TrEMBL record:
SMART domains: Brix (SM00879)
Protein name, UniProt field: Uncharacterized protein
Organism: Arctia plantaginis
GO CC annotations, alphabetized: Mpp10 complex; small-subunit processome
Coiled coil: none
Domain Flavodoxin-like per the UniProt entry, residue ranges: 1-126
């Protein structure tokens, strides 16, 4: 996407969103994990059941432009299946993909309640920090991720960091406050690592038919010291 799209709106679990209002939406970003063997997560079940209604007209979501970010484990045969099903169903109902389709593997997940001295969750839109995305693919990945978030206000005290190290993207979320001349950070979680699995192009109804811009292949995992998002390590400290 060459042009920046400024989107603001609420951030909700899918089952907390009044799905009957979806026909009136112009933009929506969906972040979806897969449970079990290709199942939708628990907080998506009512939303998904509504979308599967046979009486929904094929053009009922014609106003909607959407993006889907899928999380999962690529070792499963139904990797990111919930996100793929959602993408396909939205397209069947007339919606138009807003961005190309990116899939990531997810590892090292630590939920909020497992993080010691956790701070309160902020409802402010976050500022985004990206570290070590320097190749063309790295910049492409950074662009896809940043379009998931509304533009924050200048005085927002919430920060999300995506830090790349050897193609593993560490996700961290903090709030901050000034203490004299110092800045105090408070982690608000969750924590996890992401690894880019594929980027698919186009606005086709069937994800399986979409052109693949980039995909992680088995031989790439064994290539010695080969990096794709940046040629640099990403964790090296300044010599100061």
């Amino acid at each position: 996407m060459e042009d920046k799209i400024r989107i603001s709106g609420p951030v909700l679990a899918l089952d907390n969103y009044p799905v009957s209002q979806l026909i009136h939406e112009e933009f929506a970003i969906f972040v979806v994990a897969t449970a079990g063997q290709g199942d939708e997560p628990d907080n998506m079940k009512r939303f998904w059941k509504f979308l599967l209604r046979k009486n929904l007209p094929p053009n009922s979501l014609s106003k909607l432009k959407y993006g889907v970010l899928g999380f999962g484990d690529s070792s499963f045969s139904k990797f990111n299946f919930a996100a793929k099903k959602l993408h396909k169903r939205l397209a069947q109902l007339g919606a138009t993909p807003l961005v190309d389709i990116a899939s990531f593997t997810l590892s090292g997940v630590v939920m909020r309640h497992d993080i010691p001295d956790i701070g309160p969750m902020s409802e402010q839109y976050p500022h985004l920090l990206f570290n070590n995305f320097k190749t063309d693919l790295g910049l492409r990945t950074m662009s896809i991720l940043k379009y998931l978030f509304p533009v924050p206000k200048a005085d927002s005290k919430r920060v999300i960091t995506f830090a790349n190290h050897d193609d593993y993207i560490c996700f961290r979320q903090h709030t901050y406050k000034k203490a004299g001349k110092d800045i105090e950070l408070s982690e608000i979680g969750p924590r996890f690592q992401m690894k880019l699995y594929s980027i698919k192009l186009g606005t086709l109804e069937s994800l399986d038919a979409a052109d693949t811009e980039w995909a992680l292949r088995p031989y790439m995992n064994t290539a010695s010291k080969r990096r794709f998002l940046s040629l640099e390590d990403g964790w090296q400290e300044d010599d100061q």
